[in-house]
Amino acid sequence: VHCTLIPLESKQTHRSKTTTPSAFRPSLRTSSSSNLTMASKSEDRKEPVNEQAVANMYAAMRSDLNQIYTKITELEMEVSEHSLVLNAIQPLDQSRRCYRMIGGVLVERTIKEVLPAVQRNKEGLEEVVTRLNETLEKKKKEIAEFETKYKIRMRKADAEVNDESGKKEGSAQGVLVGPAGGGE
């Protein structure tokens, strides 16, 4: 199907009669306006009208906090993997061949070419983790203020769980140690 439209924005001389269908343009405007709407909602939180609204807002805040924790954990694992790769390839000959996954494609490179890229990626990930930790602290403060404002307290399902956890608290702290002299 060949579509010829005259844009409404400009009535100047047309170099070509074929243009992008106008149906595609509003979707761009819609997505940017929805992003603005979402940003304004998160910044200008309305006062909840009832207890259920408070509970819903609190649950949403806790969910956001859990998502941040999850993302931090995921990125810290990636930083750890990058460190393992760096430690494995740094002592090797710089002209040695290695393979790197770029956009789902395995590409052959030399260690000399790959090493700086892996280092930059690791540093970038560490920077993102730092920012997420700052965001996490802000979110914790926001939740603490919300809890104080609406007098929210977390209840345990069983009183016995509290008693048992208090007794085991000191003994539950263990350290897992690998075999002595294992230079693996």
From TrEMBL:
What ranges does the record list as Basic and acidic residues composition bias? Answer: 157-170
Q: GO terms for biological process?
A: protein folding; response to cold
CDD domains referenced in this protein's UniProt entry, alphabetically: Prefoldin_2
- What's the domain of life for this entry? Eukaryota
Q: Does the keyword Nucleus apply?
A: no
One Gene Ontology cellular component term attached to this UniProt record is: prefoldin complex
Q: Where is the signal peptide?
A: none
The UniProt entry, under InterPro entries, shows: PFD2, PFD_beta-like, Prefoldin
| SUPFAM superfamilies, alphabetized | Prefoldin
Q: List keywords of the entry alphabetically.
A: Chaperone, Coiled coil
Recorded coiled-coil stretches: 122-149
Record region (Disordered) = 9-49, 157-184
The protein's GO terms of the molecular function aspect are:
unfolded protein binding
Q: What segments bear the compositional bias annotation Polar residues?
A: 18-40
Family membership, please give it.
Belongs to the prefoldin subunit beta family.
Q: What is this protein called?
A: Prefoldin subunit 2
Q: Which organism is it from?
A: Pisum sativum
